[in-house]
Amino acid sequence: MSQATGNEQGRGWWLIKLYTFLIYVFMFAPIVVVLILSFNASRFSGFPFTGFSLHWYGELLQDDAVLRAFRTSLWIGAVTAVVCTALGTMAALALVRYDFPGKHWVNALIVGPVLVPETVLGVGLLLANRAVGMKPNFGLLLAGHILLSLPYVVLVVQARLIGVKRVYEEAALSLGANRWETFREITMPLIMPAMLAGLLLAFTISFDNVSASVFWRPPGVETMPTQILGMLKVSITPEINALGALMIIVTVGLPLLGGALARLRIRRQTETAS
Amino acid sequence: MAVSMLTAAERRRPWILLAPTLAALILLMTVPIVIMFVYTFYTFKTAGVETPDFNLGNWHDFFTDSYYSGFLVKTARVSAITALLCAVMGYPPAYFIAMTRFRHKWLLLLLLIVPFWISFTIRTFSWIHILGEQGAINAGLMALGLIDQPLQMLYTEGSVIMGMIHFLLPYMILNVYVSLDGIDRNLISAARSLGCTGWQAFREVTLPLSLPGLGAGLLLSFVLAAGSYVTPQILGGRRDSLFGNLIYDTIMKELNWPMGTTLSIVLLVLLGIVSVIYSRYMGLSSIYKGLSR
After folding, report:
1. What is the pLDDT of residues A171-205, one digit of tens each?
2. Radius of gyration over alpha carbons of chain B, in Å?
3. Searching chain A, which residue's CA lies closest to the CA of residue B223?
4. Which ipTM value was assigned to this complex?
5. From CA A29, how far away is CA A36, in angstroms rounded?
6. Is B26 on the interface with A (CB under 8 A)?
7. Considering only CA atoms, which of B82, B66, B293 is closest in space to residue B167?
8. Which of A23, A48, A124 faces B89 most closely, judged by CB atoms?
9. Inter-chain contact B36–A3, Cβ cutoff 8 Å?
10. The pTM is what?
11. Angle, CA of A29, A35 and A39, to the nearest 5°
12. Read out DSSP for A47-101?
């Protein structure tokens, strides 16, 4: 058999390769189509492509409702990210650095919001808010987003913290630093990548959430995704394509650019070192 | 033991660190779920009004009215189809990424992460441009002269399933990939040198060892599909509503809180049971995992 020499040979392997390629096409074709159609001059949102135009981007930048939704999502995402990173790092420290009774239950509670369907979290929090006699307000939306993002920050920081040796902290403590100084000078710099990853993740989860946000948003307030959902209900306009494309360019472009710059810097550093 | 030498202050320290997180989770998740459970026994009067009492009317309605069980069956069917198709579509790419000696493997993995950066709403509505009347498929087929009338592909159960697969596939591929990547390659070589064909080695060694990842992918796909309601809202017709849409409409449109909470608790309990059954099965498959170390 020709296959007997290795894995990467034979017709089977070739088929798997083709299949993989097609699956990647499946995953990215719709996204590419949105990018292409956002430059379509046509008054209709779909095909055929009648000519290149930036008209719909201009239209978008004059749409007050979209800009307002964008600002709302931006600040809710920012506050969620900061709060979750602070709380999540504290919780991760407790879970990794200490042994205490009931740890098992605490762990189970922390992954709760990941396992409970968002619809159920949405209904529950809205009901609790109503049961204490309040109308949906920004506080509810913010609290909800913190609930959704917090577990992910704990998990990310926890994973990193497990890899940081305790001896560094013990050395600092034995040299007379107190707990806070030890955290600030030793632990925090070591887990900083994870804290930043958690920050970014919490922001993304908040910025992207729609399933639970539609339950929590105050009347008349839209976040970016609920705004798009509302626009889709009316009709599918070319403006939505432009909005989608703009968001794709920002949310995919920025991390890729950041990653590329970081790689470049590391390469420069290693070059000067050698 | 060191434990006995801990001072009271040191024993308190983890709880002080955990306090804000625990307070947030209990206040925003646990207490609301308890309140929801209490509300399932209330009586619905009119939109937005209910009397606090203890009656089993909502539960009785749920278990006797075929309207509700119909939604449940449909949701289970659609989620199961979605999860299975995800497995069929996701396993070969995961296998390819794990086994390839392609130099730019990182690129394939990066491309699996990229969809997570793109807004879920945008990824879902992008399918309108593929399947819709003015979508890529219809436009292409009409340009080729193969059809005169656009095909109705959007706003069907198929388009809902397609949208959900599109969103769940990266989860599936990553889960299977992690499992496949952890397999000791010597086991596969050993099987081959003992006379197995490539297919036999895959069936007897690789596939069983990758089951934990496949199982996790299936569970995740099923649970996320069963809880979803935005995808049916965007890509489905009126008849393609799932259990999540039922909950949303009952609460946000009819303002029927007692029934809405009953349905929410049902969803929570059923998906909880699925997860528990799965973790039982995981207990078994950890033997496989143990073998691979």
Report:
1. 988 998 888 888 988 899 988 888 988 898 899 88
2. 24
3. A117
4. 0.85
5. 10
6. yes
7. B82
8. A23
9. no
10. 0.86
11. 140
12. SS---B--HHHHHHHT-HHHHHHHHHHHHHHHHHHHHHHHHHHHHHHHHHH---T
